[in-house]
Amino acid sequence: MLSRTQVINNGLRLISANLIADPDEDTESARQAKSVYESVVRAELENHPWTFAKSQVSLPANADAPLFRFAYAYNLPADFIRLVELESRWVFSVIRDVDVDPVPPYELHGRAIFTDLGAPLSIAYIRDVSDDPTTWTALFGKVVSAALAVELAMPLTKSEGMVSLAEKLYEKELARARRSSAIQTPPKNIPDGSWITARLY
């Protein structure tokens, strides 16, 4: 199982920086890593609908409705990172042309979602698991380590070449992890686009 120390050290190895024994130790590597760790992990969680970090919840409507446009407001979970599904519909579409089952209108306002859908509102979302690397997949751990390497390369090595190398390694690890996550997602039917449906008339 991954630990915070392992994730950080894997990133430090990529840029040939000094390793740490504990994230709270008084060394330059530890101080620099600690200053960016949380923001880097949360950014990577937001970057893709990772299957390992998905969670579902049924939200009650707030007592106070939005002032205009929408009928209901729902507070998002405390560990919310990114919205993935709204009432069993993906909030993004591969084909944005003809959609037989469109996503209902909604807007995110701070830590709340506004919509006309009545309570309870079912959503799937990416939850914040930044403090628990044991729940991550091995490939996501590599993504975070590579992202940390990008952030730490200049402060610790003062080398633009090392920054460039870290960026290339990050892109490689991100592509691998995204492919793995996509493979684990069941196939979904995509509606025909206008080029197909036009031939029916």
Summarize this entry quickly.
The protein has 201 residues and is of the alpha+beta class. The protein has helices at residues 4-14, 28-46, 138-157, 160-183, 194-197; strands at residues 54-59, 72-75, 80-86, 89-90, 106-109, 112-115, 121-127. It has two domains: 4-48 and 137-183, no CATH class; 51-128, no CATH class.
Outline the structure in words.
The protein has 201 residues and is an alpha+beta fold. The chain folds into 2 domains: 92 residues, no CATH class; 78 residues, no CATH class. The longest helix has 24 residues. The protein is built from 5 helices and 7 strands. The strands form 2 sheets. Strands 1-7-3-4 form a 4-stranded antiparallel beta sheet. Strands 2-6-5 form a 3-stranded antiparallel beta sheet, with no helix packed on it. It is elongated, with a radius of gyration of 21 Å. About 3% of the residues have low confidence.
Low-confidence parts: 94-99
Average pLDDT reading: 90
Order of helices and strands: HHEEEEEEEHHH
- How are the strands ordered across the major sheet? 1-7-3-4
Per DSSP, the total helix count is 5
Major sheet details: 4 strands, antiparallel
Helix content: 25-40%
Q: Terminal Cα separation, in Å?
A: 57 Å
**Rg, please?**
21 Å
Briefly note the structural class of the backbone.
alpha+beta
- Number-wise, the strands total 7
Proportion of β residues?
Answer: 15-25%
